[in-house]
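Subject: design request, 257 residues
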């Protein structure tokens, strides 16, 4: 099986290096969820060897609708590299990406190492929260919404870029589930949403992540960031100005060119 994982890694790595999208791996290979995470970890290990570093993690498929696409009953995680983190109020070229989407999400900044059995209260006490926008991106031909779970996991769960704003103290549990989103594109509101779309509360997505990371002997450490899950169904990114405003948290903007 290691040879299969190596072959899939090479498939993904080829797309990464040539900047040309590739066919889904499910067309050729049949692997388990755990084996697909092994491919992701190999991809990240390669990036670290080349000088990048782990900045944190993103949580994907935090709604029943997106889980249904991948025929799964739980979220998935991807690994965020420092090269994938964008500060708010910046410009970024779409030409650097394959076929990106837009997902407004809250970002959790980790101030103290979080224990493997952390509950929601521990997470709240050890984090701050920032307005964010995730820009998912995968290296497959016509990837969204046609991916399978093993496709997604093997390609680092479509981790493209995250845009982070200024953090504020993490709200209490009840308030964290009722944060309202207003998303504007070129000055006009196009989407609204609420934080309870993320597994009922974004902090529950983080508790899921902690348990999943522990299975892979990983953990949330001081200095990391977590992109916690989209408030709305993802949609295709276009050139223009995006502004995501979260009530009582703040706003963040990115201009895609």
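Subject: RE: design request

Done. Sequence follows.
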């Amino acid at each position: 099986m290691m040879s299969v994982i190596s072959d899939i890694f090479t498939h993904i790595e080829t797309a990464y290096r040539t900047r040309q999208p590739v066919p889904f791996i499910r067309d050729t290979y049949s692997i388990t969820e755990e084996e697909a995470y092994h491919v992701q970890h190999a991809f990240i290990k390669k990036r670290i060897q080349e000088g990048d570093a782990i900045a944190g993690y993103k949580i994907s498929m935090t709604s029943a609708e997106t889980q249904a696409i991948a025929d799964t009953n739980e979220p998935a995680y991807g690994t965020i590299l420092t090269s994938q983190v964008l500060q708010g109020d910046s410009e970024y070229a779409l030409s650097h990406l394959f076929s990106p989407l837009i997902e407004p999400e809250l970002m959790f900044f980790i101030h103290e190492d979080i224990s493997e059995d952390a509950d929601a209260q521990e997470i709240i006490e050890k984090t701050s929260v920032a307005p964010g926008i995730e820009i998912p991106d995968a290296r497959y031909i016509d990837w969204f919404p046609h991916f399978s779970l093993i496709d997604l996991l093997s390609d680092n769960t479509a981790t493209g870029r995250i845009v982070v704003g200024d953090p504020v103290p993490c709200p209490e549990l009840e308030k964290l589930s009722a944060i309202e989103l207003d998303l504007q594109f070129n000055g006009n509101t196009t989407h609204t949403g609420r934080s309870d779309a993320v597994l009922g509360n974004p902090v529950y997505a983080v508790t899921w992540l902690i348990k999943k990371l522990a299975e892979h002997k990983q953990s949330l450490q001081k200095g990391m960031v977590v992109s916690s899950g989209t408030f709305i169904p993802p949609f295709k990114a276009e050139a223009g100005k995006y502004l995501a405003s979260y009530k009582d948290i703040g706003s963040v903007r990115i201009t895609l060119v």
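Residues 66 and 141 are 19 Å apart (CA to CA).
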